[in-house]
Structure formats: structure tokens, C-alpha cells
Write a structure and sequence with these properties.
The protein is mostly helical and 156 residues long. It contains 6 helices and 2 strands, in the order H-H-E-E-H-H-H-H. The radius of gyration is 22 Å and the shape is elongated.
Length: 156
């Protein structure tokens, strides 16, 4: 028997989940279509959610705020049945899954912050020292996107 099917308490309507999570009903339905959360149907064919869906939604919301894409959120939550009660060990595995990616994002954000400290909204008062300077578009040979910021630290 799964941890989900052993639950015997009161289930939540989508409206209750929306109010308690701070998410729009459409967002809750979207996350469900992506397989990040799950629901069961009432005898009247209405969606009903296990209360622990609120924990899943909180994790999804915080993860998205930190820049973790939904695909990565889905990968981390994938081994668990949507809506199943997760143990502390389960959540620990999810956190471990994201630790490296979050550490990398933190380093990127710190570097961005540090390199833009001297930038004055690009009326550039110090063009020779500008971390975004790209004379003659030479960085286009390296590929699309923000090449300067995608370089390993120390180059630039």
C-alpha cells in the first residue's frame, strides 16, 4: 500500500489549496498536469487534494523563486508518487539533488553582483573596465547569449 492510499483524513478542495498555498487555481491545475502534484476525484468528480500537497506546493514555489526550472523540480520529485507523504529522508534526497545546482547559481549571482558593482547604467564612464564590453562583437564567435557571464570566473 502506498503512503498516499493509507491516508484517511479530510481532503482539500482546489479552492482551499489555493487559499492556503497562495497560488491561483490555474497554477495548481498546471502543476498537476506537469505531474508535480496529484489529486483524487470525489464521488461528485471534483478534484480533492491530500493536505501534504501544501508542502509540495511550497517546495515548488520556493524552488522556482530560486531559479530552479520546473523540469528539474519534476526530476527531483519524480521518484515520489504525487501527493504521497514524504519522509524526512525523502526530503533530504530532494535537497541533496538541488544542492550542487544551487551552489552553482549562488556563485553565478555573486559574480554578477561583483562584476556589475562598477556599472553605472551604461552611460559607461569606464568603458575600458566595463565587464560587458565586447569590442567588435568578438564574443559572437563563442556562441549566443551572455558570453562574458557564462565564462568561468577569472576570465573576462
Amino acid at each position: 500500500m502506498s503512503r498516499r492510499t493509507s491516508y484517511t483524513g479530510r481532503l482539500l478542495s482546489v479552492g482551499e489549496v489555493s487559499r492556503r498555498s497562495g497560488l491561483a487555481v490555474s497554477a495548481i491545475h498546471f502543476y498537476e498536469t506537469k505531474g508535480l502534484i496529484g489529486s483524487v476525484r470525489s464521488p461528485g468528480n471534483q478534484r480533492r487534494y491530500f493536505p501534504n500537497v501544501l508542502r509540495y506546493l511550497a517546495i515548488i514555489k520556493v524552488a522556482q523563486r530560486t531559479g530552479i526550472p520546473l523540469g528539474e523540480i519534476g526530476e527531483a520529485l519524480g521518484p515520489y508518487e504525487p501527493g504521497a507523504r514524504m519522509t524526512a529522508d525523502d526530503w533530504g534526497r530532494v535537497a541533496t539533488h538541488w544542492r550542487s545546482a544551487l551552489d552553482s547559481r549562488i556563485r553565478d549571482l555573486e559574480r554578477l553582483r561583483d562584476e556589475l558593482d562598477g556599472c553605472i547604467g551604461c552611460g559607461c564612464l569606464s568603458l575600458e573596465a566595463c565587464p560587458l564590453r565586447n569590442p567588435d562583437d568578438t564574443l559572437s564567435r563563442e556562441g549566443p547569449g551572455p558570453r562574458i557571464f557564462e565564462r568561468p570566473s577569472g576570465r573576462g
